[in-house]
Amino acid sequence: MATVRERQALCLVCGLELGGGAYFEEPQGQTHVDCHDQHRRRVAPRCVVCAEPVLARYYAADQDDEPKPDDWEPPRLVHAEGDCHQQYRERTADKCAICDGPVLGTYFEVGEGAQKRKVHEGDCYERHREATADRCAVCDGPILGRYYDVKERGRAVKVHAEGSCYADFRS
Predict the structure, then answer these.
(1) Rg (CA), the chain
(2) Half-sphere exposure (Cβ direction) of 79: Cα atoms closer than 13 Å
(3) Buried b vs exposed e over 65-102: b needs ≥16 C-beta within 10 Å?
(4) What is the enclosing helix (H) or strand (E) of 119?
(5) What is the DSSP code string of 58-97?
(6) How far, rounded to the nearest angstrom, does the alpha carbon of residue 144 sit from its chain's CA centroid?
(7) Is residue 121 within 8 Å of 110, Cβ to Cβ?
(8) I want to staple 84 with a disulfide (CB 3.0 to 4.6 A). Which of 29, 45, 49, 103 is the partner?
């Protein structure tokens, strides 16, 4: 007489029977304890920077910079540890109007309305000031400090107050 044998469940990862040993219950089925990490890596969401599985702390891409608990799953993730988060911030940050680098720290906003752009504090801001400053009527240098408003051939012009520009203009 033939005996009816119950079909054993198979591991999702290796395909072998689970047998009587310990296993993990997953929504898709069961896995051996030894196969569980491999299964987690295979089904885990991927980091938008490095494409590796995100298994621990992460940031939600295109959202705030607060770390999320491990059980919340937004559609796009970035690793919280390592270089991924910094690389993602650099890739998605506004660009400096002068050097085209990512603006992550302190900055100045320059321009008006739709032309408003961000400029790094420091050298980039100084370059912007020099490029957009009024020019001295004598030396054609940028006027960044004190100056005199003077009339030249019926129109108002600016002349540096420091150095020899004002003296040269008057002579």
Answers:
(1) 32
(2) 16
(3) eeebeeeeeeeebbbbeeebbebbeeeeeeebbbeeeb
(4) strand 117-120
(5) EEETTS-SPPBPTT---SSEEESSTTHHHHHHHHHSPBBT
(6) 33
(7) no
(8) 49
Bridge-based pairing of strands 117-120 and 147-152 is unpaired
Looking up tokens 């520009």, which residue turns up? 165
pTM over 0.85: no
Beta bridge partners of 164: none
Residue 97 and residue 128 in contact, taking contact as beta carbons nearer than 8 Å: yes
Identity of the residue numbered 108: F
Per-residue pLDDT of the chain (171 residues), as tens digits, is: 444 344 467 887 787 787 777 777 877 778 777 787 777 777 788 888 888 888 787 777 665 556 656 655 555 778 787 788 888 888 888 899 889 999 988 888 888 888 888 998 888 888 888 888 889 888 888 888 888 888 878 888 888 887 778 777 776
